[in-house]
């Protein structure tokens, strides 16, 4: 990369040297112009340019001008190439602007020596000729050659010298190459310089300085605006040509009054020449540069070159390769911009989203009221209209676009073309259609279709040429479709309805038809051209192959024909009456063709043909009727319907065409068609038979069935097919895999959704039946349909009032009935039968299942024992029978005794089995025991409720206002949320199927959505708190807490917050659970009070009620609720002390009652509350002293923060609230406590922390306090295992001790005290040697070392105990870091442990070095 940069710099140096040689620079090496393209003073710049122009002809002539011109052009090419390199851009652009200025001045100052010439070299001036660029009207023949422009011969001083126009050639080459940005910037520079110079010339000539300065300022402003907006990005496609110049104004005068316009004329000719000569890929930059030049120089100047520019634009469109979509798009965009530049856009296009072609199914062919055409020259019109029958489809579109623009969207096209009728007839009707090649045939039919659509009166349908044309065309179409035969067309290539070439017998010429027509592979798609200066979004239709285009153009032609009254009013014996049935049959026949454009076009044409007209008032039947006879329509429909008799004749084009036919003539069909279509669908439920027919391509069979199903969406009176279609769809999807095609999604869902959305009532009634809604086979299908984008109608109907009632009755009837019964008999015991009422089966849990399994295993084991006992009994009985001869014998008696024992054992085993079975049956009956008073929540009821939740969720998600608009649904959801059943099901999740675990989650989301839609309903906020009253683990409900806090702080208005407060106070005075009150305070009230303005929430009535509740019910509240209420009191005292001033005695009474109760959970928050009270109100001294004493003795580590805050509030107000005797008493008590805290380290830390924080208050007693400080410093900070906070407290205490010393500093200390402090600081520094920045250890060590240095600096000698110092150091060095847990694989110390120990030793030794250095 560096080598390339160096080579580029070397090449650029050569170019600069060559440029100096070619331009013959003087000895100083400085050109007489500003090469940088900039000048600090605009006046000096203009003057220098004018002076340079006077000496422009003084250069030395070259011996060989052609060689020098070629060299000059190569140098310019090199400069443009250098400008594309980042490292050379600035210098190259300076040279380019200097050369451009030089060329401009040379051309401008020698205009008298630049002569316009013709193509043969003769002198000419096209602008002074009488006819200008006009040409004769020969649309069907040759047009006279265009008058040349931009061709010049150099004479005088310029003859034999470098041709300055070579710079324009390099500029155009740069635009077509990789230097687009530099070329565009140069164009802007030259045009701006041209404007400034001409402004200065006018100033000199007129002498009107004021006007000239104003004009100069305007030019400067315009230049500044254009300077930065001319180029953006990198590459050819990033040129900005969207200038704001007014097209009607021209900055150039072709009469010779403009200084330097010849250069732009030649540049324009070079642009046009490049469009003709360069390849399509290099034209993009050239076209953008040409548009830029046109818009910068204005419409008045460009009007002189209108024909040439239109000729260039048409050639670019014509020469664009049709197989490259981007080339066609760029070419058409160039033509549209040129057209809009010269003629603007029709007023009717304003506000239209898209402007479609007239020859398109979406095109608006209705002509508005006549208007005056746009001014267009005869030559321009002739040039464009001559291409109306071009074999290039894009050129034909360009011609149609041009004619729409110049005729105000065809409103005045008849006036423009009225003089060209004869030429158009010669062009279009000169030959028989059968003799034309296929491209010419398509072009002629397309042109005739446009004329009949846009200007039907230009060549009327009654014209003999037009009638013959239509007759021959319809005959060729009918022969191709096999409707008629004619041996005279044996050698003619015909096109059938599907766009294929056939012979006169309708047989394909190419034999087997491929799946895709080869010529359509590289066709362009529909594109939209958009530009701020066009005024509309122009839609360019897609490219079609010739066969399809012929059929589509033919249909457009007949669409225009059927719009005429002559078509319907012609007699049967007339030529048009003879053609009418064939035209109508063609339109119907095209409905079932394969090409989608042909189907759309035929549908559009039939809409025109089948329009209803009003009946005659005097007739018996005055209802609207078709203008076509009923017999003709039936005759045209019959061939289409014949194919529906047998499923073997079905095809996708046939079914799609029938869909369009049903849309057009829905009233002509009855229910029997739907029954027939259902029979066809049943055939596709046997995939083996369908595939064996081999009538369709492999895998296409489901698409045929889907097309059959799609017919039901347009079938009239088809609401009774809902059940049949849904069941058929489910069965078709079950056999879809048997067709062998891999479908990502079912092809039947879309047509089914389209049908169901047309019959919403039947759909909802079908799916909202209990046995279907609880069946996954149906509900999954229903929800998939509801989620589709095209199901808005179904969702809207489902969200209606009638369906809402149905939804509640079907899905929530059982749980709501249980809730009503609970309200009637609220005292119900929570036994197993009661839980079963709520759908909770205690034996569903794993523990219960294990119990049942153990019982079953016990029964099986006892059965085995019984079987063994039975066998023993049989053996003993057999033995007894063998000895039954002598029953009195001893053997018989012994056998009898054994048999009796075995028999008893058998009976006992049999009884045990029966007892085990009865116990198991009792357990089973208990598990499924039901409450006879009410119907329980069965699995089916739970499933219906879940599906109801899903339905509400879908409707809420797609319509956020659904819940706010349906109070019945909201009421039901709130009942379910508060219900005992939901509470029990959440508590017994283990005993519920996992499918129903999300009940509480879904309900909470509904309530959140409702609250977001209706924030004025604040009661729902208290309902949401219920979820936190019970333990849960499987579901995270933290989003509810976040929602509540966010709503209270940022969503609710002041009045709504007041409503929440009133609701809370009502709840506080009620009999509700204390946990609910605590959660309400934590999640609703406290966030509002802390982050908002309490005055907004608390009114006078609220404060009065709140204080009343504290006095009346404060003693019955639990400790947690009391803490929350005290926090509220603290906030009120802090921010609303004026409003609560009249209740201060009551508040103090309430707080004092809490302190007297001596509850450890509420005592410390009570101290904080009373301290806040002391800070804002006058308080009895006894109360203050008692609180102060209690706080001074408090040392709870749990409530340390509250105690500290209370002290921070109380101590600064002691001197304000207490008289001097009482204050003296309080401070003396402090000294007394100081003697008592030495036996407890926590109490000592708390006491000295108070002293340090409020040192100014206790400074008067420093004489009594200082002697105890040294001991406290030693105890708090010098112990090996002291807490870091204690060590920091020790250092701060030592610093306070130094500040309080007599004389101000360590000098006043005795040697003993100083030595003790020094040793303490040394020990603290060593103990905190292992420290990191921003940690407490680091801060403590730094403070200790700082104090150590201060003491040593104040005293001559300080004694550090060596034993103490060395002992501490050795103890630290010998103490190992915390031992890690040894594992089986790692019993020895790891390298990381050794490294950690080494770092520790290094830190301690560094601390020793620091101490020794001090």
Tags for this model:
1414 residues; mainly alpha; two-stranded antiparallel sheet
| Helix-strand makeup class | mainly alpha
Characterize the main sheet: 2 strands, antiparallel
Mean pLDDT across residues: 79
In total, the number of strands is 8
Number of helices: 64
Task: Kindly estimate the percentage of residues that lie in beta strands according to DSSP.
Answer: under 5%
Q: In what order do the strands lie side by side in the largest sheet?
A: 1-2
Low-confidence segments, given as residue ranges, are: 25-63, 129-138, 222-251, 614-619, 1378-1389
Shape: extended
Tell me roughly what share of residues is in helical segments.
55-70%
By oligomeric state, this entry counts as single chain
Tell me the distance between the termini.
59 Å
CA gyration radius, whole angstroms? 51 Å
How would you sum up this structure, described in words?
This protein has 1414 residues and is mainly α. Helices cover 62% and strands 2% of the residues. The chain contains 64 helices and eight strands. A two-stranded antiparallel ribbon has the order 1-2. Strands 3-4 form a two-stranded antiparallel ribbon. A hairpin with a 6-residue loop joins strand 5 (527-530) and strand 6. Helix 19 runs parallel beside helix 22 and helix 50 (1119-1135) packs parallel to helix 52. The protein starts with a helix and ends with a helix. 37% of the residues are buried.
């Amino acid at each position: 990369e560096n080598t390339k940069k160096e080579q580029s710099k070397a090449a650029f140096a050569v170019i600069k040297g060559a440029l100096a040689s070619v331009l013959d620079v003087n000895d100083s090496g400085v050109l007489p112009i500003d090469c940088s393209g900039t000048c600090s003073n605009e006046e000096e710049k203009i003057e220098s340019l004018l002076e340079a122009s006077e000496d422009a002809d003084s250069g030395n002539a070259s011996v060989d001008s052609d060689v020098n011109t070629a060299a000059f052009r190569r140098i310019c090419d090199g400069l443009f190439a250098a400008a594309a390199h980042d490292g050379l851009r600035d210098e190259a652009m300076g040279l380019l602007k200097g050369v451009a200025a030089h060329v401009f001045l040379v051309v401008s100052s020698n205009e008298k020596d630049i002569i316009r010439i013709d193509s043969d070299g003769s002198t000419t001036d096209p602008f002074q000729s009488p006819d200008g660029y006009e040409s004769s009207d020969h649309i069907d023949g040759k047009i006279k050659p265009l008058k040349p422009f931009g061709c010049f011969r150099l004479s005088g001083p310029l003859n034999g010298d470098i041709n300055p126009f070579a710079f324009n050639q390099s500029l155009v080459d740069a635009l077509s190459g990789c230097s687009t940005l530099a070329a565009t910037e140069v164009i802007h520079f030259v045009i701006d310089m041209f404007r400034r110079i001409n402004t200065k010339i006018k100033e000199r000539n007129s002498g009107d300085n004021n006007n000239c300065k104003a004009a100069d300022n305007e030019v400067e402003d315009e230049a500044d605006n254009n300077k930065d907006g001319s180029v953006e990005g990198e590459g050819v496609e990033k040129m900005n040509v969207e200038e704001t110049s007014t097209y009607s104004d021209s900055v150039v005068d072709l009469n010779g009054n403009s200084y330097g316009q010849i250069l732009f004329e030649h540049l324009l000719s070079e642009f046009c020449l490049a469009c003709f000569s360069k390849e399509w890929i290099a034209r993009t930059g050239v076209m953008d540069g040409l548009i830029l030049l046109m818009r910068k120089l204005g419409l008045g100047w460009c009007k002189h070159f209108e024909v040439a520019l239109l000729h260039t634009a048409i050639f670019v469109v014509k020469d664009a390769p049709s197989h490259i979509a981007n080339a066609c798009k760029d070419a058409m965009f160039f033509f549209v911009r040129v057209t809009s530049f010269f003629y603007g856009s029709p007023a009717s296009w304003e506000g239209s989203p898209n402007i479609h072609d007239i020859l398109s199914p979406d095109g608006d062919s209705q002509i508005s009221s006549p208007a005056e055409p746009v001014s267009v020259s005869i030559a321009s019109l002739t040039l464009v209209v001559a291409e109306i029958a071009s074999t290039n489809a894009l050129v034909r579109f360009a011609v149609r676009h041009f004619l729409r623009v110049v005729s105000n969207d065809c409103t005045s096209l008849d006036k423009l073309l009225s003089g060209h009728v004869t030429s158009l007839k010669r062009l279009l009707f000169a030959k028989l259609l059968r003799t034309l090649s296929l491209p010419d045939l398509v072009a002629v039919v397309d042109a005739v279709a446009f004329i009949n659509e846009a200007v039907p009166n230009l060549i009327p349908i009654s014209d003999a040429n037009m009638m013959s044309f239509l007759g021959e065309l319809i005959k060729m179409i009918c022969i191709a479709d096999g409707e008629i035969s004619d041996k005279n067309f044996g050698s003619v290539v015909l096109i059938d309805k599907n766009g294929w070439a056939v012979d006169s017998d309708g047989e394909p010429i190419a034999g087997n038809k491929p799946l895709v027509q080869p010529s359509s592979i590289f066709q362009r798609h529909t594109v939209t051209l958009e530009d701020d200066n066009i005024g509309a979004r122009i839609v360019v239709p897609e490219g079609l192959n010739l066969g399809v285009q012929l059929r589509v153009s033919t249909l457009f032609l007949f669409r225009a024909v059927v719009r005429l009254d002559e078509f319907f009013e012609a007699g049967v014996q007339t030529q048009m009456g003879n053609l009418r049935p064939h035209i109508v049959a063609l339109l119907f026949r095209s409905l079932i063709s394969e090409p989608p454009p042909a189907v759309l076009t035929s549908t559009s044409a039939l809409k025109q043909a089948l329009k209803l007209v009003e009946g005659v008032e005097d007739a018996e039947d005055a209802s609207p009727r078709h203008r076509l006879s009923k017999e003709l329509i039936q005759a045209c429909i019959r061939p289409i319907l014949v194919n529906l008799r047998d499923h073997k004749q079905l095809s996708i084009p046939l079914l799609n065409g029938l869909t369009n036919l049903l849309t057009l003539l829905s009233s002509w069909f009855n229910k029997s068609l739907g029954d027939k279509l259902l029979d066809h669908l049943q055939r596709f439920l046997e995939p083996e038979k369908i595939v064996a027919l081999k009538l369709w391509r492999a895998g296409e069979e489901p698409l045929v069935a889907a097309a059959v199903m799609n017919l039901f969406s347009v079938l009239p009176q088809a609401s009774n097919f809902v059940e049949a279609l849904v069941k058929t769809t489910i069965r078709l999807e079950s056999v879809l895999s048997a067709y062998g095609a891999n479908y990502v999604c079912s092809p039947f869902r879309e047509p089914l959704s389209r049908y169901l959305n047309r019959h919403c009532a039947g759909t909802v009634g079908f799916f909202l039946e209990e046995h279907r809604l609880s069946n996954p086979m149906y509900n999954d299908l229903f929800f998939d349909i509801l989620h589709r984008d095209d199901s808005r109608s179904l969702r809207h109907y489902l969200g209606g009032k009638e369906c809402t009632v149905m939804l509640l009755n079907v899905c929530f009837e059982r749980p709501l009935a249980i809730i009503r019964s609970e309200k009637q008999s609220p005292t119900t015991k929570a036994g197993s039968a009661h839980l079963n009422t709520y759908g909770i089966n205690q034996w569903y849990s794993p523990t219960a299942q294990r119990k049942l399994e153990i019982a079953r295993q016990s029964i099986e084991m006892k059965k085995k024992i019984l079987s063994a006992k039975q066998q023993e009994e049989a053996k003993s009985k057999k033995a007894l029978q063998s000895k039954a001869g002598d029953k009195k014998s001893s053997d018989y008696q012994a056998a009898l005794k054994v048999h009796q024992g075995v028999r008893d054992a058998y009976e006992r085993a049999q009884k045990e089995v029966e007892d085990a079975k009865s116990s198991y049956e009792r357990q089973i009956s208990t598990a499924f025991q039901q409450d006879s008073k009410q119907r329980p929540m069965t699995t089916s009821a739970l499933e219906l409720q879940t599906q109801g939740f899903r339905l509400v969720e879908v409707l809420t998600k797609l319509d956020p206002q659904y819940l706010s608009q349906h109070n019945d649904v909201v009421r039901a959801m709130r009942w379910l949320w508060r219900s005992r059943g939901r509470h029990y099901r959440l508590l017994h999740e283990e005993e519920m199927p996992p499918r129903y675990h999300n009940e509480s989650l879904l309900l909470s989301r509904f309530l959140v959505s409702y609250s977001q839609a209706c924030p004025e309903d604040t009661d729902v906020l208290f309902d949401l708190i219920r979820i936190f009253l019970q333990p849960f683990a499987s579901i995270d409900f933290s989003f509810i807490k976040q929602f509540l806090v966010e709503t209270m702080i940022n969503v609710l208005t002041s009045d709504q917050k007041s409503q929440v407060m009133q609701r809370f106070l009502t709840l506080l005075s009620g009999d509700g659970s204390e946990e609910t009150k605590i959660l309400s305070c934590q999640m609703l009230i406290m966030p509002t009070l802390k982050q908002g303005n309490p005055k907004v929430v608390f009114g006078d009535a609220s404060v009065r009620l709140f204080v009343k509740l504290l006095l009346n019910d404060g003693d019955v509240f639990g400790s947690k609720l009391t803490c929350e209420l005290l926090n509220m009191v603290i906030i009120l005292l802090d921010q609303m002390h004026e409003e609560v001033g009249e209740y201060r005695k009551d508040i103090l009474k309430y707080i004092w009652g809490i302190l007297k109760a001596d509850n450890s959970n509420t005592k410390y928050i009570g101290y904080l509350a009373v301290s806040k009270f002391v800070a804002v109100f006058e308080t009895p001294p006894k109360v203050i002293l008692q609180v102060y004493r209690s706080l001074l003795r408090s040392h709870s580590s749990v409530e340390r923060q509250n105690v500290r805050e209370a002290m921070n509030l109380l101590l600064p107000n002691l001197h304000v609230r207490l008289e001097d005797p009482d204050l003296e008493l309080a401070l003396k008590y402090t000294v007394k406590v100081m003697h008592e805290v030495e036996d407890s380290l926590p109490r000592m830390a708390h006491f000295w922390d108070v002293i340090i924080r409020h040192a100014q208050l206790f400074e008067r007693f420093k004489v009594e306090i200082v002697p105890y400080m040294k001991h406290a410093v030693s105890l708090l900070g010098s112990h090996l295992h002291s807490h870091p906070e204690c060590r920091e407290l020790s250092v701060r205490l030592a610093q306070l001790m130094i500040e309080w010393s007599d004389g101000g500093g360590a000098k006043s200390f005795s040697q003993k005290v100083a030595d003790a402090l020094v040793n303490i600081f040394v020990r603290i520094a060593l103990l905190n040697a292992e420290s990191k920045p921003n940690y407490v250890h680091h801060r403590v060590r730094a403070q200790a070392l700082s104090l150590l240095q201060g003491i040593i600096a104040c005293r001559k000698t300080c004694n550090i105990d060596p034993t103490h110092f060395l002992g501490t150091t050795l103890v630290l060095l010998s103490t190992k870091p915390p031992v890690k847990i040894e594992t089986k694989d790692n019993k020895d110390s790891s390298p990381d442990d050794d490294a950690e120990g080494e770092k520790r030793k290094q830190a301690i030794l560094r601390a020793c070095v620091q101490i020794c250095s001090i």
